[in-house]
Amino acid sequence: MRSVIFSLMALCSVANTYAQTNLTVRIKDIKTKEPLTGTVVNIEGTAIGNSADSVGLVSLIGIPDGRQIIRYRAIGYS
Fold first, then answer.
1. How far apart are the C-alpha atoms of 19 and 12, rounded to whole Å?
2. Strands 70-73 and 40-43
3. Cα 62 off chain centre by
4. How do the pLDDT tens digits run along the chain, 78 residues long?
5. Cβ-based burial of 28 (10 A; exposed 0-12, middle 13-18, buried ≥19)
6. Backbone angles phi, psi at 58, to 5 degrees
7. What whole-number distance in Å separates Cα of residue 18 and Cα of residue 6?
8. Which residue from 33, 76, 74 is spatially nearest to 52, judged by alpha carbons?
């Protein structure tokens, strides 16, 4: 019985180690509230990134756990 419990605990800890997060956001102009289509959003220091669709939605999948820096770029904005 002990080996089964230990194996289950080890399996759970490995699953938690590789947990990742998904993020979906909507990018809009703060004044006009119009979606910013084509805005590029990425997680600094990773290859994770995407661009906003026609309604301003961006999804980032597989973000590592922990504190991350999210960068975004849109033409005509600074």
1. 11
2. antiparallel
3. 6
4. 333 333 344 333 344 445 578 999 999 988 898 999 999 999 999 999 999 999 999 999 999 888 999 998 988 887
5. middle
6. -130, 135
7. 19
8. 74
Residues facing residue 26 across a β-bridge = 57
What pLDDT does residue 65 have?
A: 86
On whether the CB atoms of residues 35 and 77 are closer than 8 A, the answer is no
Residues with Cβ < 8 Å from 68, sequence gap 6 or more? 43, 44, 46
Count of Cβ atoms closer than 10 Å to residue 58 Cβ = 21
* 64, two tokens: 């590592």
pLDDT at 19: 59
Backbone angles phi, psi at 8, to 5 degrees: -65, -40
Enter the DSSP assignment of 35.
B
